[in-house]
Design brief:
Blueprint lengths: L8 E5 L4 H12 L5 H15 L30 H13 L7 H8 L3 H12 L4 H12 L7 H11 E5 L1
Antiparallel strand pairs: 1-2
Helix pairs in contact: 2-6, 2-7, 3-4, 5-6
Length: about 160
């Protein structure tokens, strides 16, 4: 007798934009299954760029090569190494550094992320716990509303079985 596999649980972001839902799905595709971990990443992206992948610090919506000062993209890559790294990574994979998907791919390939991802995959922690680890990922200078956003996303992430 054959048995079907039980449905795989996953989080769906209720009342989220397509970009927000794509990030939640992307993170789970990388093996991050903790609701608070996903919420903290999303809260930080919302604080940095409001999920606008082609935004230059200050609010200008421009392609990568037209953002001449400040941060750029989903997580506002600001330092010279991180900003140029985005461009180099995109060229290596024949993509555009202004592309949403390319920025997600670059984000998870940065050294800062790989250390953070280990924490995210540990699971079972609180929003403040993951938020402390997120500081070392992004090195934000202004806390802003990122924790409030994370708590909001934690409520919007609903466990579903497919």
């Amino acid at each position: 007798m054959l048995y079907d596999q039980p449905p795989a649980p996953h989080y769906v972001c209720v009342d989220c934009t397509p970009a927000e839902a794509q990030v939640a799905q992307f993170l789970q595709g990388r093996g991050i299954y903790d609701r608070n971990a996903i919420a903290v990443v999303m809260g930080n992206i919302k604080q940095e760029s409001n999920f606008k992948h082609n935004i230059c610090e200050g609010g200008a919506i421009v392609p990568y090569d037209q953002c001449l000062r400040g941060g750029y993209g989903l997580i506002q890559w600001t330092s010279t190494n991180r900003y140029l790294g985005l461009g180099s990574f995109a060229r290596k994979y024949n993509g555009s550094p202004s592309d949403f998907g390319m920025q997600l791919r670059y984000m998870v390939n940065e050294n800062q992320w790989t250390k953070f991802e280990v924490v995210l995959k540990g699971g079972g922690q609180s929003v403040p716990y993951y938020m402390n680890a997120a500081y070392y990922w992004l090195g934000w200078g202004i806390h802003g509303n990122r924790t409030n956003y994370a708590y909001s996303y934690s409520k919007k992430l609903v466990l579903r079985y497919s």
